[in-house]
Design the sequence.
């Protein structure tokens, strides 16, 4: 099953409404990055949903029919909230098993106060 | 169809011209998507001349994805079996890795071994993943095919061949033939490879230096200055490693294989992980260094 990202959905909504869109518009309005847009455009070009020339994306007839056919899965599905996952580089080092750990006294006091 | 990977939005809007340049780069070079933050940081730190250089370097970059590496492996096998007519009898295919650490040559060996037809009686024990154990396999009338993923200056491969020759003398075996294969090599390493006293060598891709062999006249001088400017922002040391300016021994390589360690011959702006004053930076490629 294909995976559609939020940028794909934004792109499809606009192109369905306008038929023809300047790709820069998505960057200016939604801050979609060049990398996001290049992936989105490539994805929909591969299945002939759109054509692209000189930075303008155009919805094809086949594409219009495809969006209508798939509107439920494209626009009504609950998206996974990837931003809720903590990125690896922001996680602290995990203390290995049996390592001695000295808690900070000040934090313990806070905890005790909360229990009261 | 595409990878399960979220790509971040831009943190600030680019002007139309900047956006178009970046968009076209991403459109033409899908591999940039793997490391968009590293590339954006580099792009944003660049002046106009440096941006021009970056565009050319990315255009000339040889990135081998897993599909392409599979094709290359097939061509290497074809070279060994059909062109060199090496049979499975008394033949070893040996990765150039000589240490305990995982290595690109071992990864390539793993990929290549199933492409040797079993009908020609190639067996798993003919594929050796570490050259340091070669001594126990040495015998007279043996054929050794040395395998590496990338040949930069040719220094490493020369050392490995000298090592094998020492062992041949030590073990007093005769008529041992050595061949060499690699996925890619820098063109300038050919002079060194030609001097190796081996039967033959083969590599699938020949690469040229990213600046001195790709730019001419005034453009070359500007490109060198731009690269020096980029590198002046990198830290001179990474633990005990010294910054290899323009790549190891100024190789100026533009080459990477998907999911392999990037060679240190590549311009360090693509992989060196520290800025000046030791601040870490996001890089386009990752390199786990061996000697620290």
Sequence:
């Amino acid at each position: 099953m294909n995976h559609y990202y939020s940028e794909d959905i934004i792109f499809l909504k606009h192109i369905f409404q306008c038929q023809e869109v300047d790709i820069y518009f998505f960057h200016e309005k939604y801050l979609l990055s060049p990398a996001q847009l290049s992936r989105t455009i490539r994805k929909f070009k591969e299945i002939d949903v759109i054509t692209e020339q000189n930075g303008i994306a155009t919805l094809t007839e086949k594409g219009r029919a495809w969006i209508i056919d798939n509107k439920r899965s494209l626009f009504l599905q609950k998206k996974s909230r990837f931003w809720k996952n903590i990125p690896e580089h922001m996680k602290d080092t995990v203390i290995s098993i049996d390592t001695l750990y000295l808690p900070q006294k000040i934090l313990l006091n806070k905890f005790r106060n909360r229990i009261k | 169809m595409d990878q399960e990977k979220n790509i971040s939005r831009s943190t600030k809007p680019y002007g139309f011209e900047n956006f178009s340049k970046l968009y076209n780069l991403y459109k033409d070079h899908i591999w940039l998507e793997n490391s968009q933050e590293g590339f954006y940081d580099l792009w944003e730190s660049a002046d106009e001349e440096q941006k021009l250089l970056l565009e050319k370097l990315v255009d000339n970059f040889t990135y081998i994805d897993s599909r392409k590496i599979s094709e290359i492996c097939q061509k290497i096998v074809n070279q060994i079996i059909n062109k060199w007519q090496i049979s499975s009898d008394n033949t070893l295919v040996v990765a150039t890795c000589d240490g305990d650490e995982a290595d690109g040559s071992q990864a390539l060996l793993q990929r290549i071994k199933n492409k040797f037809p079993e009908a020609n009686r190639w067996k798993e024990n003919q594929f050796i993943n570490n050259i340091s154990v070669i001594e126990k396999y040495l015998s007279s009338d043996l054929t050794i095919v040395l395998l590496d993923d990338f040949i930069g200056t040719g220094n490493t491969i020369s050392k490995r061949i000298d090592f094998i020759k020492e062992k041949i003398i030590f073990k007093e075996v005769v008529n041992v033939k050595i061949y060499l294969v690699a996925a890619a090599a820098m063109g300038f390493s050919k002079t060194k490879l030609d001097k190796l006293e081996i039967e033959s060598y083969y590599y699938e891709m020949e690469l040229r230096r990213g600046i001195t062999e790709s730019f001419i006249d005034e453009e070359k001088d500007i490109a060198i200055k731009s690269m020096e400017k980029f590198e002046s922002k990198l830290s001179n040391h990474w633990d005990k490693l010294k910054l290899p300016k323009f790549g190891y021994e100024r190789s100026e390589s533009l080459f990477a294989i998907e999911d392999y360690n990037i060679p240190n011959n590549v311009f360090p702006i693509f992989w060196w992980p520290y800025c000046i004053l030791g601040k870490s930076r996001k890089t386009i490629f990752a390199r786990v260094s061996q000697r620290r």
In short: The first strand of chain A starts at residue 20 and ends at 22. Chain A has a mean pLDDT of 87.
